[in-house]
TrEMBL record:
Enzyme class: hydrolase
Major subcellular site: secreted
Keyword Hydrolase found: yes
Transmembrane segments annotated in the record for this chain: none
InterPro entries per UniProt: Chitinase_II/V-like_cat, Chitinase_insertion_sf, GH, Glyco_hydro18_cat, Glyco_hydro_18_chit_AS, Glycosyl_Hydrlase_18
Keywords assigned: Carbohydrate metabolism, Chitin degradation, Glycosidase, Hydrolase, Polysaccharide degradation, Secreted
Family matches, as SUPFAM superfamilies: (Trans)glycosidases (SSF51445)
EC number: 3.2.1.14
Name recorded for this polypeptide: chitinase
Catalytic reaction list: Random endo-hydrolysis of N-acetyl-beta-D-glucosaminide (1->4)-beta-linkages in chitin and chitodextrins
Length: 367
């Protein structure tokens, strides 16, 4: 009987967090197996560029110049860590449809990725194309993965990809082929609700309350029909979403009308987990649905100029907390998935007792 690989507890490190004094060395390194560096940006000809050249390669950080070199240093100082270059992302995927459609550009992309891997001591590459939207793009996506694997062969190098839970996207792909090429599929099990939603709701539940409800299960069922479970990594959000004026799940909330993003009176709709006020996580405020692996709080809204008299003075806050992460880690173990990842490690709480990353690692390893 073949032995399953060790469970993954991975984090994404976004280079822009260095501007908040959160360098790679500040992560919960002893509780992490893999760090994904976000992001390199693909070009239509297959070359790669910096997302932010100053943050990536120039800013003094951790006794190095640039976050790329700082991460390479972290890896040297922590031999248990794997590091992976993530390419694309939500705002960096524009070139993928054109480059993936060209055999020449696909080969150039794979070669460029290999050069970055060598230069910055990465263990592999993560293709984060968000997202193939047609059957043709789905075929080109698989061809791009093939080109990367040919240039970065297993088991010497890791090749991973990030995919959403949305079945309409997953059905554009030959999932069996994807699962045969990559080491891991990082399933983005979050953002099921947000400012685009008509009502307040949980943004990262493992299970839905109704058959029609949105949850991680929708994507997991589809993947598990085609992909070995140990290749699937379950995503955890290290940030909270806020629905102003809502008093419960399913409640209509007060949507912002756009306006000036620098407006001091504009309410936050998303915050890093590390910045969630302690009072929102207090025992008499925080609620955890253990059946769905979802947590929420109903909290007072901050004062806001011009708020109408009929406006409701609470907000519905949806987030993962250590208790829900432990439930999800238990699910990973029970279903033989490959582990957990967190978007982002830099958004996690600093204290071990509050850390999502630490809670996940300990639960994955029976601690």
């Amino acid at each position: 009987m073949s032995r399953q690989p060790p469970l993954v507890n991975a984090v994404y490190y976004p280079s822009w967090r260095v501007y908040k004094d959160i360098p790679p060395s500040s992560l919960q390194l002893h509780k992490i197996s893999t760090i994904y560096y976000a992001f390199a940006i693909p070009q239509e000809n297959g070359s790669l560029g910096f997302l932010d050249e100053y943050a990536d390669a120039q800013i003094p950080v951790d006794a190095e110049l640039g976050c790329l070199n700082a991460l390479a240093r972290v890896k040297r100082d922590n031999p248990h860590l794997k590091t992976v270059l993530s390419i694309g992302g939500g705002t960096g995927s524009r070139a993928f449809p054109v480059l993936a459609a060209s055999e020449h550009a696909r080969a150039a992309f794979a070669q460029a990725a290999a050069r970055w891997v060598q230069q910055y001591s990465f263990d592999g590459v993560d293709v984060d194309w968000e997202h193939p939207r047609t059957p043709a793009e789905g075929r080109h996506y698989v061809a791009l993965l093939h080109a990367c694997r040919a240039t970065l062969p297993a088991p010497q190098f890791l090749l991973t990809t990030a995919l959403p839970c949305d079945p309409s996207v997953l059905r554009m792909l030959d999932l069996r082929a994807v699962g045969s090429i990559v080491d891991h599929i990082n399933l983005m099990c979050y953002d099921f609700t947000g400012p685009w939603s008509s009502v307040a709701g949980h943004h990262a539940p493992l299970f839905a309350s109704t058959e029609e409800g949105t949850s991680s299960q929708q994507g997991l069922r589809l993947l598990l029909a085609h992909v070995p479970p140990h290749r699937i990594i379950l995503g955890i959000p290290a940030y909270a979403r806020i629905f102003p004026g809502a008093t419960a799940e399913g409640d209509v909330y007060e949507q912002e009308d756009g306006g000036d993003e620098d407006d001091e009176d504009k309410e936050e709709l998303e915050i890093d987990y590390r910045d969630v006020p302690p009072e929102w996580k207090a025992a008499d405020v925080l609620r955890v649905d253990h059946g769905r692996a979802a947590a929420w709080a109903i909290v007072p809204r901050p004062g806001k100029k011009g708020r109408s008299d009929h406006a409701r003075n609470t907000s519905f806050v949806t987030m993962d907390v250590p208790a829900t992460v432990r439930i999800k880690a238990g699910f990973v173990r029970a279903t033989a998935l490959g582990g957990l990842f967190y978007w982002t490690g830099a958004g996690d709480a600093e204290r071990y007792e509050d850390s999502l990353v630490a809670a996940g690692f300990d639960a994955l390893h029976g601690m």
